Amino acid sequence: MPIKSYLAHSHKGKKAELVNALSTIGQCEVMPAENKDVVIVVTDTEDQIEEEILKKKLDTLESLKFLAMVSGFNAPQND
Amino acid sequence: MYTSLANRRSFIKKMAMLSAMTAAATMFPGILFAEEQEEGLPKNADLDWKKAPCRFCGVGCGVLIGVENGKAVAVKGDPKSSVNKGLCCVKGYHSVIAMYGKDRLTKPLVKKNGQYVETSMKEALDLIASKMKETIKDHGKDAVSIYGSGQWTIPDGYVASKFFKGCIGTNNVEANARLCMATAVTGFLTSFGLDEPMGCYEDIDYADVFVLWGNNMAEMHPVLFSRLLDQRLKRGVKIIDFATRTTRTSMAADKSILFLPQTDLAVANAICYEIIKNGWVNRSFVERHCNFSKGLTNMGYGLKDNYKFKDKPEKIDFNAYKDFLEDYTPEKVEKISGVSVKDIKYMAAYYGDPNKKVMSFWCMGPNQHTRGTWMNNLIYNIHLLTGKISAPGNSPFSLTGQPSACGTVREVGTLTHKLPHGVVMNKKDREFAAKIWNVPVENIDPKPTYHTVEMFRALDRGDIRFMWIQVTNPMVTMPKLKRYRDGAKKEGRFIVVSDIYPTPTTDIADVILPSAMWIEREGMYGNSERRTQYFEQMVNPPGEAMSDTWQLIEVAKRMGYEKQFHYKEETHIEEIYNEYRKHHVGKKHNMAPLEVLKSQPGVLWPYVDGKSTKWRFNAKYDPACTNGKDFHFYGKSDGRAIIWQRPYEPAAESPDTEYPYWLCTGRVVEHWHTGSMTRRIPVLHKAMPHAYVEVNPEDAKRMHIQTGDKVKLTTRRGEIILPASVNQRGIPAPMQVFVPFFDENMLINEITLDSFCPISKEPDYKKCAVKVEKV
After folding, report:
1. Which helix (H) or strand (E) holds B109?
2. Cα B528 to Cα B523: distance, rounded to the nearest angstrom
3. B730: domain range?
4. Minimal CA–CA distance to B157: which of B401, B435, B407?
5. Beta-ladder partners of B718
6. Is B413 inside any structural domain?
7. Quick check: B558 and B126 in contact, CB under 8 A?
């Protein structure tokens, strides 16, 4: 049950587009910065396989310049 | 049924979010995440934001408190604070909630016929003063004592010291920092002659490598740890976690190295061996700025009452030290420590590389250690041998756990041997303090009395009859707790406890005084990096709650010390701080004026010519250096730091056939120390409602233990049953277990050992032998 947080950097002028795109992905919680082109993304997936699929999906987002992982936790399922 | 993991997932998500916010804040100073920071604020709130240091740990984050209609309703990180650059950890964000728990103490309570009865503050203070007078008359001045805290504000500790040491004339003044930071103090004093780090947090921005010695920084100092992670993102720095247990810090580090308990002593010596063997010694630095010494060995562990130890330092030369290290080749140390030769050489190579700046961090691992002073010395040895000290990015850095362990306990000197400037044993220091305190110098006793463990032993024996406990919870934190709880409850003892909530410590009190908390009064804290931070009173305390400072002043006046405690209620904090500053006048420890503290998020001392001193002992940055050289360790009379010959010696109690496991205790990210505040914060309490025992997965498999199963821990002191935690947050090494101490309903200290470092007298909470059984 991996939970990871990332700093997502958008291409110039594409922050809103990035936020919209991320918001449509069920496993992502998104918090945009108010004054910088940075978005916090917290991903919550069932297992490693789903995590891998999600990563590939994120890599296809055109508005995303790069994604830097900040923290990773492996939480138990019974929560 | 055990449900401590309930809601963990949502909590972890919040933690993940906060980690990212923290990292973002260090990368982009001033970045705003309004959604999170303003979550929970009343709609259309017209908040008045005021600055303060955070109430919790020793990192000393600057926070802004949102006040509305006389109530603190929000917290956000202070973007102007160089400590946290606008961020907080999960405890900090929720800190104001701790002020509004339903069971807040609001009226003084006096025990009458076994029942607590509400009384007026005047009556309670009258009773305390009369009991103190009576005890002194019947049993002498050393029968009264005060036990305070690293959460005391600077004025609290200052008036306590002045009252007890200067006026009553007893050195029965101790604080809970004895249980966490005393070793750091003796480490600094023995190596450098002066307490507290030479560097500051800014070192993080320059270091290439961070070695964490038994320090779970990701959970205990999360904001500071995020600064390390940020530097890794920006500059590719390396983080090495050197510990006895796998934690979140280990998982985030570039390299995790596990060692067997107590053998950090051997590994540190092996690193020094490698540094010398490979020619990595900074010879000119060592020749110009260092001496070599050795002290007594086989000191014992302080397990018996009235244990005494005094070290006898003896100068040695470099060759003698080099010969001593022959016992610590990586090959020999691998056998003692379980750390591979390769890993020892890996760490040594970073320290030895002249092109790498190295920062060492440590906190309770090396400090709560029966050879803790030695362990501190050994880390300094590594930095001194390589000359990696007192310069940006080269920094041995001892972290603290309480908001003012440094500011109040170490700088004000609320320990039995200390004065605000110097020690009671020194005539000149006594004369200096007596003059400022306006007391006859004869009042200050030249002999220290009891360190914390011995103070509670004295209470048990009856040598101490009266104890006043403020802002701390020793009936959760004392090792081998049962003895000290039973001792405090004995006939003929009188205990006063000042606190904000009922705790196991208020349970032993004869008088409970409700205290004002944090921003309900005015005060200052001093953090790990010598930063003094001021906070104003922002809201009113509830009911008759009163600041600890004013409680002490009121009792002192009732005892006849009006002349010394002449302060006016409306200006007393300013008057006390101005008086306190006089003790530290001079370039080595000058404190900033109050108006400067009020104007910014803290100031580092020494504050000289309007500037903070960031790197002490380095002539380029420190105006107190006067020897004409590049470095001046002016704490020692010859200006030289000491490289100590300190051997590996085993722990006071090691596993055997009857008690085959190591027991280590510690903290969790959700709760601050004994949990008396954070357990009143619903989100934190929900996330971590009670304690547990972490068992190594292989050990658990062998014993058929799963998470949630009941496990009995038995030591020579007693037994306790806890739910198991397997493969959850931390993972102990095989044949080791870990238990957090925050839970007053599962008091792990009932079974810990009261052994301590003979030099610092700080107990070792990290090592004793335990039997582990599935119930």
Report:
1. strand B109-112
2. 17
3. 661-752
4. B407
5. B715
6. yes
7. yes
pLDDT tens column, B332-359: 999 999 999 999 999 999 999 999 999 9
Pick B13's closest partner by Cβ from A29, A34, A78: A29
Other Cβ atoms closer than 10 A to B323: 12
Please, where are the H alpha helices in B293-447?
Answer: 318-324, 330-337, 341-352, 364-367, 372-385, 427-437
Output the pLDDT for position B27: 63
β-partners of residue B145 are B467
Q: Read off the pLDDT of each residue in B418-430 and give the average, rounded to a whole number.
A: 97
| Distance between A62 CA and the closest CA of chain B, angstroms | 22
Domain count, chain B: 3
pLDDT digits (tens, 9 = 90+) for B199-244: 999 999 999 999 999 999 999 999 999 899 989 989 999 999 999 9
A68 touches chain B (CB under 8 A): yes
Taking chain B, what is the end-to-end CA distance rounded to the nearest angstrom? 14
Identity of the residue numbered A29 = E
Of B533, B564, B595, the one marking the end of a domain is: B564
Chain centroid to Cα B46, Å, comes to 37
CATH of the domain at B560: 3.40.50.740
| Side chain identity, residue B30 | G
Both tokens of B583, joined, read 């003790």
Residues B79 and B162 in one domain: no
User: What is the C-alpha to C-alpha distance for residues B102 and B631, in angstroms, rounded to an integer?
Assistant: 54
Q: Which tokens go with B557?
A: 């006046």
Q: Element (H or E) spanning B683, and its range?
A: helix B682-687
Span B129-137, average pLDDT:
98
Query: Could you tell me the residue ranges of all domains in chain A?
Result: 2-74
Helix-helix angle B264-277:B372-385, to 10 degrees: 20
Residue for token pair 């029942």: B115
Name the nearest CA neighbour of B4 among B709, B696, B475.
B709
Tell me if A33 and B251 make a contact (CB, 8 A cut-off).
no
- The 10s digit of each residue's pLDDT in B613-630 is 999 999 999 999 999 999
CATH code of the domain in which B67 resides:
3.30.200.210
Residues 2-31 of A with CB under 8 A from B: 3-7, 29, 31
Q: Give the confidence band of B39 by pLDDT, cuts at 50, 70, 90.
A: low
Judge: A33–B31 Cβ closer than 8 Å, yes or no. Answer: yes
Provide the H-helix boundaries in B236-340.
248-252, 264-277, 283-289, 318-324, 330-337
Give ∠ CA A79-B4-B9 in degrees, rounded to 5.
30
Tens of pLDDT, residue by residue over B500-542, are 999 999 999 999 999 999 999 999 999 999 999 999 999 999 9
Tens digits of residue pLDDT in A38-72: 899 999 988 888 888 998 888 889 999 888 877 77
Interface of B with A (CB under 8 A): 5-10, 12-13, 15-17, 19-21, 23-24, 27-28, 30-36, 229, 233, 248, 251-252, 707, 728
| CA quadruple B700, B702, B705, B710: dihedral, nearest 10 | -100
Are B745 and B679 in a shared domain? Answer: yes
Global pTM reads 0.88
Does B12 share its domain with B145? no
The question of ipTM being above 0.95 is answered as no
CA distance B281 to B396: 17
pLDDT surpasses 60 at B381: yes
Q: Is residue B247 in some structural domain?
A: no
Q: What is the DSSP letter of B17?
A: H
Question: Do residues B90 and B49 share a domain?
Answer: yes
Per residue in B41-67, pLDDT (tens digit) is: 555 567 889 999 999 999 999 999 999
Cis-peptide, bond into residue B606, ω within 30° of zero: yes
| Domain formed by A2-74, architecture | 2-Layer Sandwich (3.30)
pLDDT digits (tens, 9 = 90+) for B662-686: 999 999 999 999 999 999 998 889 8
